[in-house]
Amino acid sequence: MGLGCLIVVPVRAAEYVVTPSVTVQETYDDNLFFYDMEDFKCLVSADIELTARTERIYVSGSAGCDISEYRRHNELDGVDHAYEISAHALSSATSRLGISGRYIRDHTTDALEESGDVVERCERTRASVQPSAAIELDPRNRIEGSCSLSEARYELDRYTNHTAESLNVTWVHDLANERTSILFQIGGNLTDYETDLRQRTCLGLVGIDHRFTEDLKIELNGGGRYTKSKSPGGYEENTGFSGSLGLTWRFEKSTLLINISEEFTPSMYGEDMIRDRANISLRHRLTENLKCGLTTSYYKNRTEGIVRTREYETFSVRPSVNYRFGEYLHLQLGYSYTATGNEITSHSKERNRIYVRISSEWPLHP
Hints:
The chain is mainly β.
C-alpha cells in the first residue's frame, strides 16, 4: 500500500528492480463492518517496491497507501499507509544477518474485519523492528534466531496502547533423506500494556517439515506455553497449547493450501489474546489466463478475562475469478460471506460482499 521513496546505496554489480502497482476496487457491502448498514466502497491502492541484490546482500523496501471512499457514509472515508524495509547479508559462507522494519497507520475496522471482530472505528499506528541471524553448524544443522520490538497505539482511549518484545531461537536438523527437517524452538515474549498489566509468555515447540513428493509438503509443530500476568491486583498464571499445521498440495492445474494454528498474541483489549485459526484455499487454473479460487476460514478469538472478556467466532467463504489481460493487467470478480458470533452475548451478525478489482503492476529494471 502507498507511495513513498526508498534510497539504497549502490553496491558493485547490484541488480535493481522497481515495481510500482495500482489497484482499483469497487465493493458492495450489505453490512459494513457489521454496523447494520449497507454501502458502496471505492478503494484505490498505490504501491511501490524496490529490491537490490548482489552476491552477498539483498535489500528490499516498499511503501503504499490505500484511499477509501464511501458513497453514503462519508464519515468512514480514510487513508491507510504502510512502509517496510528489510536487508539480509551473508556475513560469511555459513552465516547470515538480517533486519527488517515496518510502520503501518490504518484503521481498526479494516484491519480486523477478516477475523470478524466488531470494533469501534479508529486510527491505529503500529511500528516494529526485527533483527535476525542464522548460522550453519554443518550441512545438516543450523541455528536461527530473531528478536523483535513492536508498539501499537490507538486513537480511542477505550483501546489499550502496548509495547511488545520477543525472542526466538530455533535449531533445524535436516535428515539424510533430504526431504525431512526437524526443528526445536524456544522463545518468549513480554507485553506491557498502559493499564499497568504486564504479560510474560514462554514457549517451547517441536516441529517437522516433510516433503512427500515434489508436489506435496507438510509442516507441523506443537508445544506448550506458560504465561504469567502481573497487574496491580496481583499475579495470574496460565498454561496452554500452541502449534500449527500447514499443507501444500499441487496438482497439474490446481493447488490446495491448508493452514491451522493456535497463537498467543498482543491485542487492543488490554491483554493478550488466544487465536485459533483454520484456513483452506483451493486454486484452479482453467486456462492460461483464467483462474478461479475458493477460500474458507474459521477464527476463534478469546481473552483470559484479566482486563476485558472477549470471545467470538467467525466463519467466511470467499470464491473468486481472476482473468489476466496481457502481462501486467488483472481483473478479479469476487464474493464473500461472513458470519460472526459473540460467544458471551450470543449475538451474531452476517455480511455479504461483492467486488470488482482491477490491478496492474509493472517491474522496471533501471
